[in-house]
Amino acid sequence: MADMLVKLYTLPDITPLLSKLNHMGVEVRRAAPMEKAFVTTWVHRHFSTTWAAECETAFTQRPVTCYIAVRKERRETAVSHPYALPPERILGFACYDVTRKGMFGPEGVRDKERGYGLGTALLVSCLQAMEADGYAYAVIGWAGPTEFYRRAVAATIIEGSEPGIYRGPLLID
To answer: What pTM was estimated for this model as a whole?
Structure first.
């Protein structure tokens, strides 16, 4: 798969999408350092060992370069303790600056949660953070759903970028 290039200075406004998701009880936010074990375990369970390892790298950065989409769970009974916040269920994740500086990915949304705009919200949230960090462009490495990236952020294929920086898997003897 080819890499894709995104101009960070022309990103779409996702405020309406984030508002719609919030009304559905979904929040897209930067993951907190103490959530590392939960997020990487979830990524490993729903996607792959490689993506979990890349996600783990995002948690070594400061600030963390992993965004997550979560749904706040409803409580059946009232809790009086001020720090007893409702639990959150992970729906998707996206990372940047993990494979190489200036690169977006990996990104994944749980199958049954697709179609609501979570992928776009995670993508643009990460790319906005990259722009805030001073990048003018981002590379989407080994972009699988090229039409999604083209539609969401006007990404273009980088000719001659296959296989790019990626190598075959390491084998354990």
So the answer is: 0.93
